[in-house]
Write a structure and sequence with these properties.
Strand content: 15-25%
Largest sheet: 9 strands, mixed
Radius of gyration: 22 Å
Helix content: 25-40%
Number of domains: 2
Bound molecules: 5'-O-[hydroxy(phenylacetyl)phosphoryl]adenosine
Structural class: alpha/beta
CATH superfamily of the largest domain: ANL, N-terminal domain
CATH class of the largest domain: Alpha Beta
CATH architecture of the largest domain: 3-Layer(aba) Sandwich
Amino acid sequence: MNYWNKAAETMPREALEKLQLDRLQKTAQLVYQKVPFYRDLWSQNGILPEDIKTFKDFEKLPFTTKTDMQASYPYKMFAVPMEEIIRIHASSGTTGQPTVVGYTRQDVETWAELIARLLTAGGVTKKDIVQVSFGYGLFTGGFGLHYGIEKIGAAVIPVSSGNTDRQLQIMREFGSTAIICTPSYAVYLGEVIEERNISRKSLSLRVGCFGAEPWTEAMRVEIEKRLNVSATDNYGLSEVMGPGVSYECGEKHGMHINEDSFIAEIIDPQTGQHLPDGEYGELVITTLNKEGIPVIRYRTRDITALIPEPCPCGRTFMRMTKPRGRSDDMLIIRGVNVFPSQVETILVEMEETEPQYQLVVRREGALDTLEIKTELNEKYFSDEMRVMHQLEEKIKMRVRNALGITAKITLVEPKTLERSTGKAKRVLDLREYL
Ligand code: DLL
């Protein structure tokens, strides 16, 4: 079994829970003493850090939200003086004010360790040449992965995002054996490889570690085929670290949460109450060894479920399912909850369409409407309106059967929907809220 840190990754649950409680108590003391936000919030609720003696006590702590992080812009959540901070990143801020995060030297070291685990689990070894096509910058993807790759001793190519022809030239001429990017960019790379008639033999790729956005099992099959790699998923978010929160092993069935560094909880997003293992809800994360910005019970807005069964790989860290998307990405169309990933599964499984799509939501009168734009596979293109219409009807039926809603299907020509070199934008919500 390919572990990076066998002792940590296969620690017996009892020892792991003891370690978690110990680290939690230290983190609670730290934030209470150093971060006014927590001291004020806990005081209002009559809580002292020494009250946390068990995991049940922990559940009394108030949640931290994205809004709290934004209100602390830029440095008010930091638990150490600036002289201890050696790196600053920020979330993209697509939903309002960006959140700024700071890392101490120890945080950067811990981060590299957690990334080394995900790379190793995904099949990367020191012999690999790893092309990082995540953006290097305030986004945590590029630099986050970079230090973990160096830690395991592989050769990192920090090409960053963009310029697809150059990416492919480097991939071929430098002999990249591993690729790190978003799954949507991986699909695009595959598409351009085909378009340029680049022979698979001229490429040395064998593994791909993808993350930073939701993607389906159907998309994995597509990427593995197009890039000729073994593809694994990994998850994280800037507010609690960046990449490195959870990662798939060779089983490719759920992502192991680095539980020596994080406590994961699943709550009902409406009531805030815990949900039983296996039920989908909002993921809440507490950091256990962060120094720069420790966070307590951070509401990620990501919808996932915990998989309590032990994994055949031997890791004892609990797994989470692939997130379905963020609770704020969930569309409610005429009362029906729709995640873009559900549409993705339908489209990717159909031969007639390419794995490229966009969902457009409008309000017409009092009704919400959903339009699904998807690209036609070249082979199925027809000049006959009737044939195209039949195909649209076929997709419409599948969507209706799977999701219970009627959508307008628009087939567009191959390669006409916008490609992203980072996170794909799948939803265009044109509803006006009065
Ligand atoms: O996307 C960190 C990251 C970089 C993770 C590289 C993995 C690889 P943010 O930009 O703060 O950080 O965005 C975090 O992206 O709350 C999820 O909604 C989504 N997300 C991240 N990874 C996955 C994944 C990085 N594997 C937000 N599956 C999170 C589904 C993901 N969604």
